[in-house]
């Protein structure tokens, strides 16, 4: 143990412990306040930006379409705070889970110009299709939605993206009375079981439309159930964005 010398110093000549109390102490640094909400928003922005790169590799689009989709996503995030348009848990994967998943339908109906989206909700796939079809002469996308708040959002999305969407505030089963003119392709996403979707789409299919219905891993069970009510010859396309499938139907006939 070191011995103390005269004057309170250790034998080494260094100040003893506690000496220098009269010296001014260093000021405690002030930590900047962190706005957790802003930090979370910035974090989500980064995640969504990375997800966008992945999505556009899965479903490439033109620069003009990308700009429209950017405006749409910005609007959706703004409205999401007051109207539940998508499941909050899917916000980090907006581009892959919703945008790319919707865009892949275009490649399955490359000649289709006139679309009908039943139960458009937050605009998937209808607004995405409208953004993709904006540069196509004669293109139109009918968006049928029964909830007034969501229909209002869809109208604003059509305006902001300058896309050829036509919003119909109506019950899904009333789509035939609302939609005038021919439809090349009818679709619906996360709306109802397949056998019910076929019932909604059948009047349009009777007039020449084909159907594309995105479905999950339980597609076989839904096809088995649908076959109890409809004569169908489905063609299945594996989704690019997950484990789901897209059911393509070119004709249906109700079982007697």
What is this structure's SSE topology?
Elements: H1 36-58, H2 63-80, H3 94-108, E1 114-118, H4 126-133, E2 140-145, H5 148-161, E3 165-169, H6 175-178, E4 185-187, H7 194-206, E5 210-215, H8 219-226, E6 230-232, E7 235-238, E8 245-249, E9 252-254
Parallel strand pairs: 1-2, 1-4, 2-3, 4-5
Antiparallel strand pairs: 5-8, 6-9, 7-8
Short description:
This protein is 40% helix and 16% strand. By secondary structure, the chain is of the alpha/beta class. Strand 4, helix 7 (194-206) and strand 5 (210-215) form a beta-alpha-beta unit.
Distinctive features:
two-stranded antiparallel ribbon, 7-stranded mixed sheet, 256 residues, 8 helices, 9 strands, alpha/beta
Give your account of this protein's structure.
By secondary structure, this protein is of the alpha/beta class. Helix 7 links the parallel strand 4 and strand 5. The protein starts with about 35 loop residues before the first helix and ends with a strand. The N terminus is likely disordered.
| Total DSSP E strands | 9
Helix content: 40-55%
Strand content: 15-25%
Please give the count of helices: 8
Q: Structural class of the secondary elements?
A: alpha/beta
Largest sheet: 7 strands, mixed
The overall average pLDDT, rounded, is 87
Low confidence ranges: 1-23, 31-39
Alpha carbon gap, first and last residue: 102 Å
Roughly how many Å is the radius of gyration?
Answer: 29 Å
Q: Please write the string of helix (H) and strand (E) elements.
A: HHHEHEHEHEHEHEEEE
| Overall 3D form | globular
Strand order of the largest sheet: 3-2-1-4-5-8-7
């Amino acid at each position: 143990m070191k011995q103390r010398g005269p004057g309170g110093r250790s034998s080494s000549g260094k100040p003893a412990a506690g000496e220098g109390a009269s010296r001014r102490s260093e000021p405690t640094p002030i930590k900047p306040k962190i706005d957790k909400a802003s930090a979370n928003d910035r974090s989500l922005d980064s995640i969504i930006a990375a997800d966008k790169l992945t999505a556009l590799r899965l479903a490439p689009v033109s620069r003009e379409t990308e700009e429209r989709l950017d405006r749409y996503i910005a609007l959706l995030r703004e409205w999401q705070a007051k109207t539940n348009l998508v499941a909050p848990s899917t916000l980090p994967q907006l581009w892959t889970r919703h945008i790319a998943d919707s865009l892949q339908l275009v490649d399955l109906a490359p000649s289709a110009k006139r679309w009908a989206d039943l139960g458009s909700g937050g605009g998937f796939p209808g607004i995405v299709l409208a953004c993709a079809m904006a540069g196509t002469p004669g293109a139109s996308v009918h968006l049928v939605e029964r909830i007034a708040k969501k229909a209002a959002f869809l109208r604003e999305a059509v305006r902001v993206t300058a896309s050829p969407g036509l919003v119909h505030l109506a019950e899904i089963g009333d789509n035939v009375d609302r939609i005038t003119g021919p439809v090349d392709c009818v679709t619906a996403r996360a709306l109802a079981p397949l056998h019910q979707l076929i019932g909604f789409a059948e009047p349009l299919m009777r007039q020449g439309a084909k159907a594309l219905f995105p479905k999950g891993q339980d597609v076989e069970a839904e096809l088995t159930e649908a076959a109890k009510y409809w004569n169908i010859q489905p063609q299945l396309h594996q989704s690019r964005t997950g484990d789901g499938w897209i059911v393509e139907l070119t004709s249906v006939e109700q079982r007697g």
